[in-house]
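Lab notebook page, bench 4
Experiment: in silico fold of construct C2
Operator: M.H.
Input chain length: 229 residues
Purpose: comparison with the prior construct
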Amino acid sequence: MINSNGFGGNYRYGQRINAADKRLYEIDFAYIKDIKEKKMPAGSQAMVVNGKKNLAFNFRFGYGKQHEQFRKHDLGGVAIRRFYNFGASLALLKPIYYDLYESGTYTFLPPEKYDPRWYDQNLRIAGRASFFKGFKEIGVIPGVFGKFGYNFEFGNHDRKIHALEAGLIAEGFLKKLEIMDYTYLGSHPKKVAQNRQLFLTIFLNYRFGKIVDPYEVKKKRERSIEISY
């Protein structure tokens, strides 16, 4: 799944209601980027996003429906379906720790969380510290979302799914996701990004999977029981 503000993955389980409609249960996992993020070389020539305070990850738990508008008449055709789902979001903010050094003496210091005052203290970023540092400080922010899109299924097999999806996600959280902080240019503070509470995201998915007939599963289970006896 590619989003206009990041990337991620999605798992969907569908139950058929009738010939054209399905009931959907979904789980999303997404990495959220700020639109103002820009990587710059640090002291060790490592690339870091100046002013980035937290890594933001998002889980979505949704329920919805899908309606088939145009059925695939042969295995080389395309089926077009529209779908929607809505539910709860759970954003996780993990602090980013950076390796530091003193400008001029090049004395390396223990990793610290981002602080814009480093620049006034003659401290510079050497690179990002271990990804696992800061896990005990993860913050959780709940929210809600709604998703709407179209599914274009083009698989050449009856039981295997290959499809492209595109649509919109509208999402809101109880408070702003603080991905970025202030950064200092010389002695003047400058806001490098606007942390948001509401998001409108465009997404594009490539989906693959398989169709399972519950009656066939039941028959196989019954046959296996008969054979065991």
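Observations: Residues 101 and 108 are 4 Å apart (CA to CA). The radius of gyration is 24 Å.
Next step: discuss at group meeting.
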